Amino acid sequence: MEQYTFNKIANDSEIPYELLLLADETTEAIDQYIFKCDIYLLQDGTENIAVMALCKNSDTELEIKNMAVIESYRSKGLGSILIKKAKEIALDNHYEVLSVGTSDTGFQQIRFYEKNDFKKTGIRKDFFIENYPSPIYENGLQMRDMVLLTHHLTE
Predict the structure, then answer these.
(1) With CB atoms 3.0 to 4.6 Å apart as the test, which of 32, 43, 85, 97 could cross-link to 61 if both were Cys?
(2) What is the C-alpha to C-alpha distance for residues 142 and 39, in angstroms, rounded to an integer?
(3) How does DSSP classify residue 25?
């Protein structure tokens, strides 16, 4: 982490859509949640290499709404660094649960979250059918349901 900097962006800063779109399909979908989130950037020097958007769901739950790393920096442990930072932010702000949702076809993402101590806790049926205007495909399969995963910070 010593070569990288991690900072929350100011509320009046430009939204880094180019990074957020790596993890979500459209700016319209991002706009449904991003204005209620705190946005964090991971930088290598002056280059933005990763983004994370955290949203308060309740007094006890913080949700990772978006997390993405640019392609040239993937498979270097940066996603796990972002998860560690999200856990620190949640603990510092007295949340009990850190949650995330991802597509049922996102096999790699599900494994990643499970590797970082998240557990599957539910399914939002037809989430991607009802919330996106056109079908979205991942790993050759149409995205339908959202898999919900949580990490209990107090355990």
Answers:
(1) 97
(2) 29
(3) S
Q: What tokens were used for 140?
A: 């050759």
Instruction: Give the DSSP letter string of 89-144.
Output: HHHHTT-SEEEEEEETT-HHHHHHHHHTT-EEEEEETTHHHHHSSS--EETTEE--
Of 20, 21, 91, the closest CA to residue 62 belongs to 91
Alpha-carbon gap, residue 134 to 17, rounded angstroms: 20
The string of pLDDT tens digits covering residues 10-68 is: 988 999 999 999 998 889 889 999 999 999 999 999 999 999 999 999 999 999 999 99
Rounded Cα distance, 142 and 103, in Å: 10
Amino acid, single-letter form, for residue 138 = E
- Residue 75, phi-psi category: left (phi > 0), alpha (psi -120 to 50), beta (remainder): left
pTM equals 0.91
